[in-house]
Amino acid sequence: MPAPIPAAVLFDLDGTLADSFAGIRLALNAALSEAGIPDHDLDWVRGHVGRGARELVRDAAGARVEGAALPSLTARYLEVYRAVYLAHTPPFPDVASVLEFAAAGAAGRVAVVSNKDEDLSRLWLRHAGLDRFVAAVVGPDTYGVRKPDPGALRPVLRGFGVAPDDALVVGDMVVDAAAAAGIGAPMIGVNAGPAAGEALRAAGAVAVLDRVGELPAWLVGHGVGWRYHGPVSNGVRVPGAGEEGT
């Protein structure tokens, strides 16, 4: 069998590996309430996350907060979020198996590249017991850029020694697709509803999967050299290296 391609897999965090929206909404609405600003429902949050905390708070507050008040409100949101997000941010189903599969198939070259600060991403990965599958963690504070800037991805692949077209970016938002397109890497959309899926395809995603748990089977079918492997857990085969896929 040839060496597996993609040779590296770069995952987004919020909405891709982590079911983050309830925790974000809780912290955001707490900060808004303290400032006398009406709260937002979960669908609104789902549609506005992904560009960083400051942009989220600016969108949520609108014209009610301007100038020096925006950094203060953003800081309060982040303060509340740090206190609550681990308890309110579960992994999506099958995430551990997906990361284990990717790490086995890509010789450990798995990264999380998020618009959440690096320390928060690392904390969540440790809390969820997933850090052992991830070789690199990047936030906007790591290289001074955030997705859709391709500079968030490029240094990771350089460190892995993998060309962009031999890698794969996995995410749930257009910013992930745009960052991947900026370096010439293929991108898979996951966990996206119909409207978000169409937006991801329009932004260049080569496929959109209903669940991140479908990624291993997609790689076996569409990657180069990817195979099924591993134990059977609760009657379900864990993908990886060992048994021929189709």
3D architecture notes:
With 246 residues, this protein is of the alpha/beta class. It has eleven helices and eight strands. The chain has two domains: 8-19 and 91-239, 3-Layer(aba) Sandwich (Rossmann fold); 21-84, Orthogonal Bundle (DNA polymerase, domain 1), CATH 1.10.150. Helix content is 43%, strand content 13%. The longest helix has 16 residues, at 69-84. The model is unreliable at 231-246 (pLDDT under 50).
Outline of this structure?
This protein has 246 residues and is of the alpha/beta class. The chain has eleven helices and eight strands.
The tally of strands reads: 8
Summarize the amount of helix as a percent range: 40-55%
SSE-based structural type: alpha/beta
- What is the count of DSSP helices, taking H or I runs of 4+ residues? 11
- For CATH, the homologous superfamily of the largest domain is named as HAD superfamily/HAD-like
CATH fold-level assignment of the largest domain: Rossmann fold
Distance between the termini: 13 Å
| Main beta-sheet annotation | 6 strands, parallel
Instruction: Tell me the count of domains.
Output: 2
Structural Rg: 18 Å
Q: What overall geometry do the principal axes of the alpha carbons give?
A: elongated
Q: Please give the CATH class of the largest domain.
A: Alpha Beta
Mean pLDDT: 89
Strand content: 5-15%
Annotated CATH architecture of the largest domain: 3-Layer(aba) Sandwich
Q: What is the chain-wise order of helices and strands?
A: EHHHHHEHEHHEHEHEHEE
Q: What ranges have pLDDT less than 50 throughout 5 or more consecutive residues?
A: 231-246
| Sheet with most strands: strand arrangement | 3-2-1-4-5-6
